[in-house]
Specification:
The chain has one domain: UDP-N-acetylmuramoyl-L-alanine:D-glutamate ligase, CATH 3.40.1190.20. Helix content is about 40%, strand content about 25%. It contains 10 helices and 14 strands. The strands form 2 sheets. The chain has a 10-stranded mixed β-sheet, with helices on both faces. Strands 3-2-6-7 form a 4-stranded mixed β-sheet. A hairpin with a 4-residue loop joins β6 and β7. α9 packs across α10. Bound molecules: adenosine-5'-triphosphate (ATP) and magnesium ion. The site of magnesium ion (MG) has 3 residues, from loops. The site of adenosine-5'-triphosphate has 20 residues, from α8 and α9.
């Protein structure tokens, strides 16, 4: 398997379209839909490919929609390892309302996953050779136990690999009880993790340092949308703003950011550069409409203009 393996337990076909105006009761005539294979881990794998890297995407898929999903991934040329399930892969709907220039994202629940199906994913990861980073991103479908990422943390450790988690709530909490390499919450997700309504930048750094001291993770990247991100290690805090751009769609920004960071980690980059590359990748994704991810040329252009500032953790 590739050095980077992504895991997607709740993949979805993202169906994007546009409509003149969203109004109730009337038949809304939509433009030709564009279908793309979505879901956290797969998005990370697709973004890694856009950035010129490779990974293996391990994911669950089933039914006709599952076959469609496999076909879409195949068309993109991704290395993958699919675990067949008896349920049907979900399909999400993303609609751009041209009258307001607002995007509506409708997410469907995933199929119920059977025990032998999720167990098979873990088995594939357990047996994979040559893996350095496992990236798990996205929500859990019904049937998957809430401690799945904690189980994954244990597997990753046994393999001497590093686990990067981009998820939220109880599954994230339980994995952190076990200890993971990196997590990438946004401010809202970190607030929830910390058990408070809202965290400001300074409190977020303090909360991250507390989690790191307790062994929840080694590195935390707190993403803040257009305000950029902070990367926090035991000893340092790195900060960088996002470049100001004309955003078209933020779908996949978080996943692309994770892709940029894991790829630069496999290249042995310094923390400040890892953060900048993640921000450049995330921001480049916002330049494209719908669910389209980043273009490498945009990422490289944005990266050059970014500066990351290293602040001593005690003075951050
Ligand atoms: N409006 C924006 N302008 C510039 N950059 C952006 C914008 N939104 C997101 N980004 C870039 O993408 C990164 C990740 O975005 P964000 O903090 O919104 O993640 P997220 O909440 O996890 O997103 P997602 O909904 O994809 O999970 C940001 O740190 C930033 O670099
Ligand atoms: Mg996110």
């Amino acid at each position: 398997m590739e050095k980077i393996v992504t895991l997607t337990l709740n993949p979805a076909i993202d169906k994007s379209t546009t409509v003149k105006a969203i109004v109730p009761d009337k038949k809304l005539r939509c433009a030709d839909p564009v279908f793309e294979p979505g879901g956290g881990g797969v998005n990370v794998s697709r973004a890694i490919r856009k950035l010129g890297g490779t990974s293996t995407a391990v994911y669950l898929a089933g039914g006709y929609s599952g076959k469609h999903y496999e076909h879409l991934l195949h068309e993109e040329g991704l290395n993958s390892n699919v675990v067949e399930i008896s349920g049907h892969t979900r399909e999400n709907l993303i609609v751009m309302d041209e009258s307001s220039n607002l995007q509506y994202r409708f997410g469907m629940p995933g199929p119920r996953i059977k025990e032998h199906e999720w167990q098979k994913c873990l088995q594939i990861l357990e047996e994979a050779q040559g893996v350095e980073y496992i990236v798990a991103s996205g929500s859990l479908p019904e049937g998957v136990p809430v401690d799945i990422f904690a189980k994954l943390a244990a597997i990753t450790r046994r393999k001497n690999a590093r686990l990067i988690l981009d998820t939220s709530g109880e599954p994230l909490k339980q994995a952190m009880d076990d200890g993971v390499f990196m997590i990438k919450p946004n401010l809202g997700e970190l607030s929830a993790l910390h058990g408070v309504e809202e965290l400001h930048r300074e409190d977020a750094i303090e909360a991250a340092q507390q989690i790191i001291r307790q062994g929840g993770c080694e590195v935390m990247v707190i993403s803040m949308g257009p305000s950029g991100a902070m990367l926090i290690t035991r000893d340092n805090v790195y900060q960088s703003p996002s470049p100001t751009v004309k955003r078209k769609s933020t779908v996949g920004a978080g996943d692309t950011m994770v892709a940029g960071m894991v790829l630069s980690l496999t290249r042995g980059w310094e923390w400040g550069d890892v953060l900048k590359y993640g921000i450049a990748a995330g921001t480049a994704t916002t330049l494209n409409a719908g669910t389209e991810l980043c273009k490498l040329a945009d990422v490289e252009k944005l990266y050059k203009h970014l500066k990351s500032v290293k602040v001593d953790a005690h003075f951050a």
